[in-house]
Amino acid sequence: MTATGHDLLSYRGKILSLITIDGVKDWIAKRVGFQCAYDLVGFTTDRKPRYRCIYVLNESSEAFVLVTTRVGKNGAEVRLFNIWPGLFRHHDEFGDGRRLCFDREFGLTFIP
């Protein structure tokens, strides 16, 4: 089961701002400093871990959750990633340059 709704839109007790991949591309083009965090939010029905991506601006510490580019009738949806290939591919292209490291419970840490 994967977290839904309000659980996906809050981080460390605060409601998150939203960002699309186009917004992240813009930050990268403008050399805006940020760090990524990937939160384990649940598992698929076949027990594959699912993660959401949180971007935190270095300058202001404001946190954003990555959402879909297309907005449906219920608004934008939080993008969720499986470890392979989704999360690895996303981090390689749109991450902060740190290496990913997983533990046995699928928790994730970064290596500078």
Describe what you observe in this structure.
With 112 residues, the protein is of the alpha+beta class. The protein has one domain (5-99). Helices cover 19% and strands 37% of the residues. The protein has 2 helices and 9 strands; from the N terminus they run βββαββββαββ. The protein has helices spanning 21-29, 83-94; strands at residues 10-11, 14-15, 17-19, 34-43, 49-57, 63-66, 80-82, 99-102, 108-111. The radius of gyration is 14 Å and the shape is globular. The N and C termini lie far apart (31 Å).
Q: How widely separated are the two ends?
A: 31 Å
Number of helices: 2
Give the structural class.
alpha+beta
Number of domains: 1
Give the overall average pLDDT: 87
Gyration radius over CA: 14 Å
Oligomer: single chain
The fraction of residues assigned to DSSP E strands is 35-45%
Uncertain parts: none
The main pleated sheet reads as:
5 strands, mixed
Q: What global shape is seen? A: globular
Percent of residues in helices comes to 10-25%
Number of strand elements: 9
SSE pattern: EEEHEEEEHEE
